[in-house]
Specification:
Chains A, B, C, D: GO terms for molecular function: DNA binding; DNA-binding transcription factor activity. Chains A, B, C, D: Keywords: DNA-binding, Transcription, Transcription regulation. Four copies of one chain form a homotetramer. Chain A is mainly alpha-helical. Chain A has two domains: 13-76, Arc Repressor Mutant, subunit A (Orthogonal Bundle), CATH 1.10.10.10; 86-126. Helices cover 57% and strands 6% of the residues of chain A. Chain A is built from five helices and two strands, in the order αααββαα. A two-stranded antiparallel sheet of chain A has the order 1-2. In chain A, α2 packs across α3. Chains in contact: A-B, A-D, B-C, C-D. At the A-B interface, α1, α4 and α5 of A face α1, α4 and α5 of B. The structure holds a DNA duplex.
Chain lengths: 128, 128, 128, 128
DNA sequence: GTGGTCTAGACCACC
DNA sequence: GTGGTCTAGACCACA
């Protein structure tokens, strides 16, 4: 499982890391029970601050994707795939909305927007 | 055209305003050539600072959605709907990706995600 | 001598008017001694505020291009073409500099910038 | 790279700063990839408000001259010199026109105006 | 009255 | 320490 970050991106590094871990889970590269690299190890590999990785892991824990076991490490949760609750979909909807609106106002029609989402999902599943 | 903001949201106020103006355009409530409320007027209506609205309007101008005419006001651009370029869709894709990944990892399947996007688009078109 | 204004332009209306009067002089459409339209008349023709035209005329007078005779009107000065003084060229240089710099940084070479200036001068002399 | 401002000038401070950064790029003092001083640092050096420099930098970013990397700084863009497009030259032309007209009406001939432009370009390239 | 510009000072997220 | 965001209040040019 390789993680690559783009320091120049608008997206915060900690968020890039969380997202890529989630992508690894989706692709099956990271299976339930598997252990993530240590905070310090991953930080030095990526050349970023330890606190940044720490934040990523705690975000993932808050999302229920991993469990942080003090002194031992972070492990992928057994069953993160439980379907989305009403609150979750509402939250996702809120996050998606501004970008969807931007796409709509730039003249994309519904099919094009769906195709865009499809291309993202395909891309996530295939490689990185 | 009513604009409502949530000061407590983690989405910046200026961004909430920009998004709602774009939604108004999509719904046809704001037609090309129409004039937006003055920076100071809208600011006092919403109970926020002038500079916050100023930033919204300048962002919208940078996106090509409105034109700011000094001493006269901000008007909706004549042809904002020109279809999205390659760079634009790439940018949109980048912005969408983290949330789409989050939806995937939470167990939503492709149909559910498409339904979510559809519900957003419907919601944007209907009212607010 | 027709004057046209673009209310949408970044350039203030009073400045557009002054510039076009000067262009008329350069083309010979407005000869020394000729009388300009009245402030009120021109303002209503152009659909702008009287104060705006007033400002144009006073700017032109400050530049030595016209003379405002109270109760009588504004007349083109007899000899506006006296060559530029050191202070004038310095002032012109200051005004030109930011735009020239912008052209340079956008990748235009010296010849292209000269060609641009030439096209402006030709355009001024030909029509409007 | 030194930046000097004239608070008394009728040219806005933020614009003076942008122009001088562009001049530094033209002279090669600021090479692609180089990092500009921090917004707050430069502001305190020049004795102006942070927001003033912030506006300069965002304007330069809108012009494609620099890239602002949140939490990291502003860097000179790799390839700002891409030649000017039709719209760009039209815009430059509009900005140049009033001053060129003023020069013409003051009696300068074409050669003198070209010499003036040359002196500006030489001045920009040499020092400041 | 409108937008443009500027200041002073504040809190926050990120690194 | 960095940029991002926001507020409060000010003066000016323009219409």
């Amino acid at each position: 499982m390789y993680i690559q970050i783009e320091p120049e991106s608008d997206i915060p590094i900690y968020s890039q890391v969380s997202t890529q871990v989630m992508e690894g889970i989706i692709r099956g590269e990271l299976a339930a029970g598997e252990v993530l690299p240590s905070v310090r190890g991953l930080a030095s590999d990526l050349g970023v601050n330890m606190h940044t990785i720490n934040k990523s892991y705690h975000d993932l824990e808050a999302k229920g994707v991993i469990t942080i076991v003090p002194k031992s490490g972070a492990v992928i949760s057994v069953a993160p795939l439980k379907g989305a609750s009403k609150e979750q979909t509402d939250l996702l909807s809120e996050k998606l909305r501004p970008t969807v609106v931007e796409a709509m106002v730039s003249g994309m029609n519904d099919d094009e927007i769906h195709a865009l989402v499809d291309s993202i999902m395909r891309n996530v599943r295939e490689m990185k």
